[in-house]
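FAQ: What does a multi-protein file look like?

Like this. Sequence, then tokens, then the next protein.
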Amino acid sequence: MEKIAKEFPVLRKSNYLNTAVYGPLYDSLIDWRQEHDLDFILHGSQLWEQTLKVLTDTRAAIGKFFNCEENNVALVYNFSLGFNMLLEGLNPKRKVLLLEGDYPSLNWPFESRQFDVTFLPLTSDLENKIEELVTKEKIDVFAFSIVQWLDGFLIDLDVIKRLKKNHPDLLILADGTQFCGAATFDFKTSGIDVLGASGYKWLLSGYGNGFMLFADGVADQFLVPSTGFNAAHGNFDNKHTLRLAKKLEPGHLSSLNFGSLKFSLDFLQRIGMERITEQNMLLSTKAKEALAELGLLEKHILERREHSTIFNIEVDKKMFQSLMDNDILCSQRGNGVRISFNFYNTLDDLDQLLKILKTRT
């Protein structure tokens, strides 16, 4: 991984524990983006067909990376836009289960459309409570982030799979922005009906790209009104026959933005998602053990068997400033400081963090 880490200029000047805010760009991606823009400067509209090919290739790459049919992949500029368009087509009379403190762009769209919403707090036995509540309250829709943005709480995806098996009519919607790219994931066997994600964090693709994945047979649950000429591939005859994924692509899409996503998917595959997953599991395990020993983690995190690489540590603003002064990039979130490791981080990075944390009084 050391050779790969050299691709990231930000790692040369800091201990970057902030992927949960922004996945850093890297040298080979910047080279590709510069070449892309130079082509447009020189050739302009002559590259129209090339642009369409980039977008088609990106859908195919996303489908292959996450095991989803290409026709069920929608390219969206970010999760928030795609999710809001999608919910415009969902019957607001359906009963929805959400998690307290989940990402606002997941929870707020349900609240603003006045769905009948029930909230569950995060507890160490969350999955049991989800299963109980879905049965007891006859929940129609369960929407959640696979990894919680504030503290890295990781939802057990095996339970989600079981939940779908036991409740086949339950519509399961997931935000994978803090998860996709950090670990291997098979959408087709996950039990999730719709997965959305932005690409600027763990997928290392910069701003302005993301996707929505749809399971087979889920389209008839959404009457999405959004449309546009691009959704119809510029063909008037397609106006009334748009599939769900295309309805989320009403206008022209950026080959720079989505080409960057494809480039990074290829980059991650060359490294190997199994290898990335293994490194991130190691970082998560070692970090959790060390932070627990320092008494910096909340009870509902300590009692979990597995966790992501995101942690919220219970330290004050003075310690946050000390971390930043020592070139450890992190963020203030909730009542503490959020740190996040990715495969390009090392155990030395963890040791540097712990050294500073041990100076607290």
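And here is the next protein:
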Amino acid sequence: MRIASLKAYEILDSRGNPTLRVKCFLEDGTVGIANVPSGASKGKNEALEIRDGGNRFFGKGVLKAVRNVEDEISKALVGKNALDQWLIDKTLINIDGTPNKSRLGANAILGVSLAVAHAPPTYLRIPLYRYIGGISARILPVPMLNFINGGWHADNNLDIQEFMIVPKGFERFRDRIRCAVEIFQTLKDILKEKGLSVSLGDEGGFAPNLSSNKEALDLLMMATERAGYKVGEEVFFALDCASSSFFDEERGIYRFEGKELNGKDLMDIYADYIKNYPIISIEDPFAEGDYDSWREFTSKFGDRITIVGDDLYTTNKKLIREGIEGGYSNAVLIKLNQIGTLSETLEAIEITKSAGWKAIISHRSGETEDTTIADLAVGTNAGWIKTGSVARSERTAKYNRLIEIEEEMGI
């Protein structure tokens, strides 16, 4: 199962920006295909995607990354066994030679890593989740669905980036999605009744201007109950605060709802949310460098809710280990393009789960119709996936793939 050639070209992501599609051709003609996502809210330690600069696509073109795939990367990988994913990824890391994949570009490297990963299961006529996880791959994830968008993902006045529903109280994935759709459509009706915008943010959730972040939670409560579901039994809530986006590094303060707050003040607000709403998960409650607040918050609330590090860890095994040792959180958000290869992502998941923490497989705000993360969630038995709302096809593609996987498993 040798690699014969690699091909890359520009496609568009869900925000209308260029990204890469990479194809890996095996010697027998089998093709593995992968698209590369891109994030708007990024941690400082993320692997670096490269853009062309200049006027074309306002500087966001990826022809440099395309050339890197078809030239230097191709020369290094042609003839190698596509079954040896760890060797493929190690080769990619070595020929780049930088700690953040900035020479060849994390977008070029990830596109190749995933395209290669798709080729063997295509040849073997098995699904990607089975190739990744073998016979142990059996758990369909609980989805965390972004229904109200704020922060950098929407053009509105909400500081918190994502207000999510978590339909946890159902056995089958298709029932979780049915619940989500009914709440989503009910929420749309409620927003219309209140004269609020039903336009969508980057991840498919609604993006109305509201009086406060608590109003967003109240709307989720109202929609869930009106749709006929039990709050706190069948449906729970989750937040992605993306707090680095409203943190003033120079002054060490958070600008939240028009106020200047320290970490303790912000913690008190979260405590109030946890007390009054069925919140089971909070992601990035503090800025990535505010370790004291992370540690104190986890100490106080880690036995009650999932506290998720995203910008804090950027799917980097070294940072995850530091977080485990420091007690900063009890879960890690896993994003393939934060680290840049499938092998490193699998290692990050393994380290996270070995500590007894949750690994939540995640999309990016700039997505494509690629469904790799759906198979990744099942293949690693992660148990959780975060991939946006039930609107916009780049989001629903992942849910539809999970429904398909559930059918294949006969669950």
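Q: Is there any per-entry metadata?
A: Some entries carry free-text notes. For the entry above: The chain has two domains: 3-125, 134-409.
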